[in-house]
Write a structure and sequence with these properties.
- By secondary structure, the chain is α/β, with parallel strands linked by helices.
- It is 49% helix and 13% strand.
- It contains 10 helices and 8 strands.
- Helix 5 runs parallel beside helix 10 and helix 7 packs across helix 8.
- The two termini are 21 Å apart.
Length: 203
């Protein structure tokens, strides 16, 4: 796609804090099926697909049923406790003020990602879910993204591979040094700094 400014955003721990709800679902899965998932470890750093999170604890034949159960529980358990991270609304508004398009690009199952955007009334032009690493890179290229903002090393690698400016925010458990090592072009302390950077760079 071509045209004006296109800014992509990761969802979990970039725009929203979904840790309480995800933790609640994982605890439920442990209670139901005794998987022994290390819940605290996995909610500390969100980003990779659900299959990556669950596969160390499950036999191969258990994986798909567990993913289906997680996704079925998600709307009733994980949506309500999720909150917008500081600066996220202002960051999205800043893209709009510059006449830009907002692409929310996430590894989360797309129908569940949509529930968050709707529940929290977050503006966007395109939502793309179920993408990770090379999948995010492909989507960023398809959307003609100029910038991709994320909290995980995978987000930085995806942005760089797509030719987008990789903007890292250490709001999801990954520190600035690791984000820089993964290719971040810009490091912000949080999304509250994004409007100023966008205005200075694209205004």
């Amino acid at each position: 796609m071509t045209g004006g400014l296109v800014v992509g955003f990761d969802l979990d721990m970039t725009l929203v804090d979904s840790r309480p709800g995800i933790a609640a679902i994982l605890h439920r899965l442990n209670a139901e099926s005794a998987y022994g998932i290390d819940v605290e470890r996995h909610v500390e750093v969100l980003g990779p697909p659900l299959s990556h999170m669950l596969s160390p604890y499950l036999a191969p034949e258990q994986l798909e049923p567990a993913i289906a159960r997680f996704r079925a529980l998600y709307p009733s358990v994980a949506v309500e406790p999720t909150v917008v991270l500081p600066g996220a609304r202002a960051a999205l508004a800043a893209v709009r003020e510059l006449g830009g398009r907002i692409v929310v690009l996430t590894g989360k199952h797309e129908p569940n990602a949509l529930l968050h955007l709707q529940h929290l009334d977050l503006p966007y032009d395109r939502l793309i879910g179920d993408r990770w690493e090379s999948g995010k890179t492909e989507a960023l290229r398809e959307e003609g993204a100029d910038v991709y903002v994320g909290d995980h090393e995978g987000d930085m690698r995806s942005a760089k591979a797509a030719g987008a400016v990789a903007v890292g925010v250490p709001t999801g458990g990954i520190g600035p040094e690791a984000l820089r090592a993964a290719g971040a072009d810009v490091l912000l302390t949080g999304l509250d700094q994004l409007p100023g950077w966008l205005a200075a760079t694209y205004g």
